[in-house]
Design a protein that fits this description.
There is one protein chain. With 211 residues, the chain is α+β, with helices and mostly antiparallel strands. It contains 4 helices and 11 strands. 23% of the residues lie in helices and 40% in strands. The protein has a 6-stranded mixed sheet. Helix 2 runs antiparallel to helix 3.
Length: 211
């Protein structure tokens, strides 16, 4: 039974499988398909984060749908991120991105490297990668050597924005209390529920390889 599969402790990812009628959609959740009504227009084929759980009478409730971001990524982006975190040399990072951009193999890589350089130009270190068969993104913005914030989109977890100072995380925020609260308590820091966006994003139609 579906109700026994649902853990409402954390937001989950659902996929819009089909638009079946006015305000009605089939949503794919794991290996199950649920039929529901949404007064917010949903895009077929897109993934969304959502709170999902059973209500009184066994009714399945789905709420707080948040689109899961997607974009160009690097197959080796996770290794690049690990290297960056290990040595922390932004100048070396920039040099590697410029060299890689000159030797890109396809449009996806070219877009990803170009976005990384554009983000660096605005003071944001951005690394798009592939994790658990999904687009992932890590971004950092420093106010000084020891203080700043980072954005993380990883796997099935909802995106988060965190502030850090002197090597410690001081605040975390996500779109869901069910994620923000336990994360903040585990880290021993302030937590909040907020709409989360990347620290840098490409301006619409700036790089267009379609058509």
């Amino acid at each position: 039974m579906i109700p026994t599969m649902i853990n409402a402790a954390l937001p989950v990812i659902i996929e819009v499988a089909e638009h079946t009628g006015f305000n009605r959609y089939n949503l794919r959740f794991g290996k199950k398909t649920l039929s529901t009504r949404s007064y917010t227009t949903l895009e077929v084929g897109e993934e969304y984060y959502a709170n999902i759980g059973t209500q009184s009478g066994g009714v399945i409730g789905i709420n707080t749908l948040t689109p899961r971001p997607k974009g160009a990524y690097l197959q080796g982006g996770a290794s690049l991120l690990e290297e960056l975190l290990a040595n922390g040399d932004a100048n070396e990072f920039r040099a590697k991105i410029k060299a890689a951009l000159a030797d890109t193999k396809d449009a996806n890589e070219f877009r990803a490297y170009s976005q990384m350089l554009l983000a660096l130009g605005e003071g944001v270190i951005s690394v798009p990668f592939f994790y658990e068969n999904r687009y992932a993104l890590a971004q950092f913005k420093f106010e000084n050597a020891l203080k700043g914030e980072f954005y993380l989109l990883l796997g099935s977890f909802a995106p988060l924005l965190a502030r850090f100072e002197d090597g410690a995380i001081t605040r975390v925020a996500t779109p869901y209390e069910s994620f923000s609260k336990p994360l903040g308590e585990a880290l021993g820091c302030e937590w909040a529920v907020a709409k989360i966006a990347p620290l840098w994003s490409e301006k619409k139609n700036f790089l267009d390889f379609e058509g």
